[in-house]
Amino acid sequence: MEKNEMSPIPGTTGAIVNPTVDWDDTQSVTHYANIGSVMGRREEMIMVFGNAESWKQGSETIKVKVTNRVVMNPFTLKRFVRILQQGVDQYESRFGEIKLD
Length: 101
Known about the structure:
This protein is of the alpha+beta class. The protein is about 20% helix and about 25% strand.
């Protein structure tokens, strides 16, 4: 067996299963965010989203009302980043490049 191959779980056929994901959104809440931040430590990454309530040019302070905080382990966040990039790529292939300042 090669180094990268996985052994089947004892008592199973070893067949690869691709389960279907059934999303239950009955308790889902939608929030709009126009600003976000990511911070982390060894065990977890924290994404904070909110709305900038005042964004006056030349202002020393930007007031942000935090609406959501999502905590993930670093491995899950890295997979999430890949999914987000796929979404951006699909968007740009349909509607054109998103240009950032």
